[in-house]
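hiii so um. not sure if this is the right channel but i have a protein structure encoded as tokens and i wanna go backwards to a sequence. like what aa goes where. can anyone help
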């Protein structure tokens, strides 16, 4: 399935994204979620990413920002759902600092490549008035901007792209700093030698929000002005559209390679999230997260599969059972307050534990079927999109390709075996959990170590799946490299 470019080449979505990114965060709360803004940018970059190397690299990083922003939302839920109020301030500092560093490592290169992609596209064709027009206050900007681009002449006025690029980097850094710095006051809370600044943390946060809102408002005005200018630059936008329709859209194989690369990441995330991390009877990585990732991966691949409906049906059943099992875990261990050992002491607790075993067994069976369905889809990809493109009857080439397909398909067998082993281990843990703390005989020792054994098996499962998935990706990439289809830069 080829991706038809939008008439505005995604610039309208990128402009709208600025409306969700300009605001300052209040501690860990983001009133306009960044995940929406970065999702709009990633969607807007979907066509541009095929046009040159810089757009491609920018799109990759904005896709990572979508994942990072979503993870930050999950972190907020964990912060107020699982972390106690005593440890929450320190955890907030640690979380904001880690997420801030990761965001700067991703978002600064993302914007840098985006603007360089615009400069590259406009300079090649000699168009892009909105990209190269001199900015207002050019002499003032020239004092703070160091020109490094090969397309810049130090004797010319500072362009709108240069000034907006500089302001974007400044805004991104200040937004993170203003979010993190107030939380460092928690370090003075337990010290007797310095004033307890954490008692005034909301004053520091309010000052940071006011300054961040001011800087963000200036950036938003510059962003809207810049993107509106690009949208009105009909020659530039039409040039990008024409280049896409001529060099990219006819190459359907390019879309297969890109789409599978994205889907393979989703499938890998799903496999990683299939691991169990039990704490007080509740799985910290509920299987419903695994189901969501796998559903997304198969859905995006559906245009290249014939068995996608059957796979989604099994995944829907697995998701439903996972939700019910997670609800039962919360109710059994958290709401009703049963402990694992209670199943050995009372009829009511034993009955509840039996229900947990039933859910675990059904979930394990469906997990095995889910893996079988996913592997069936991967076999279709192997047969249709790996090997060689045979344009004429060549029995020798056909024989080599058939051997390659059999080798790749046989490599999927260990994945299915490990899925069965992991499923059995999960059921065994649920059955044995009441005995985990009794100690003594070997059975009780095994019960206490069962979650560690399951985690080890899950790691082996992930490693094997990742290895086989990389083999498929490599062969798929080799095929389309041989057919002359590669990155966006090659498509030019």
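sure thing!! here u go:
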């Amino acid at each position: 399935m080829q991706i038809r470019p939008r008439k505005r080449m995604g610039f309208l979505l990128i402009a709208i994204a600025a409306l969700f990114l300009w605001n300052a965060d209040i501690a860990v709360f983001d009133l306009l979620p960044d995940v929406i803004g970065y999702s709009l940018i990633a969607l807007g970059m979907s066509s541009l990413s095929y046009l040159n190397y810089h757009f491609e690299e920018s799109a990759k990083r904005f896709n990572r920002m979508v994942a990072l922003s979503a993870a930050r939302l999950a972190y907020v839920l964990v912060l107020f759902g699982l972390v106690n109020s005593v440890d929450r301030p320190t955890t907030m500092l640690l979380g904001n600092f880690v997420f801030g560093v990761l965001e700067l490592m991703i978002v600064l290169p993302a914007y840098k490549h985006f603007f360089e992609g615009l400069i590259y596209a406009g300079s090649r064709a000699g168009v892009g008035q909105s990209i190269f027009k001199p900015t207002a206050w050019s002499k003032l900007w020239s004092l703070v901007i160091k020109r490094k681009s090969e397309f810049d002449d130090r004797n010319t006025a500072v362009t709108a792209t240069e000034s907006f690029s500089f302001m974007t980097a400044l805004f991104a850094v200040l937004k993170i700093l203003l979010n993190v710095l107030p939380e460092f006051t928690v370090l003075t809370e337990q010290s007797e030698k310095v004033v307890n600044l954490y008692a005034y943390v909301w004053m520091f946060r309010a000052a940071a929000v006011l300054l961040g809102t001011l800087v963000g408002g200036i950036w938003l005005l510059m962003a809207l002005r810049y993107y509106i200018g690009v949208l009105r630059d009909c020659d530039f936008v039409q040039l990008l559209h024409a280049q896409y329709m001529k060099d990219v859209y006819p190459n359907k194989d390019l879309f297969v390679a890109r789409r599978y690369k994205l889907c393979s990441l989703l499938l890998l995330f799903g496999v990683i999230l299939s691991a169990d991390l039990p704490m007080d009877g509740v799985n910290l990585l509920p299987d419903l997260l695994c189901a969501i990732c796998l559903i997304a991966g198969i859905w995006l691949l559906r245009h290249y599969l014939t068995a996608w409906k059957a796979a989604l049906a099994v995944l829907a059943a697995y998701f439903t059972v996972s939700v019910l099992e997670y609800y039962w875990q919360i109710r059994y261990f958290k709401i009703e307050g049963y402990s694992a050992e209670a199943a050995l002491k009372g009829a009511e607790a034993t009955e509840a534990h039996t229900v947990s075993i039933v859910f675990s067994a059904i979930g394990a069976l469906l997990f095995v079927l889910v893996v079988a369905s996913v592997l069936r889809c991967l076999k279709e990809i192997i047969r249709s999109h790996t090997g060689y493109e045979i344009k004429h009857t060549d029995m020798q080439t056909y024989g080599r390709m058939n051997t390659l397909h059999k080798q790749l398909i046989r490599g999927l067998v260990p994945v299915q075996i490990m899925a069965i082993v992991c499923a059995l281990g999960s059921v065994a843990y649920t059955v044995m959990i009441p005995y985990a703390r009794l100690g003594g005989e070997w059975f009780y020792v095994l019960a206490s170590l069962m979650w560690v054994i399951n985690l080890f098996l899950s790691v082996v499962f992930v490693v094997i799946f990742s290895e086989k998935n990389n083999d498929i990706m490599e062969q798929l990439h080799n095929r389309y490299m041989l057919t002359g289809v590669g990155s966006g830069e090659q498509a030019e």
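oh and Residues 252-491 form one domain.
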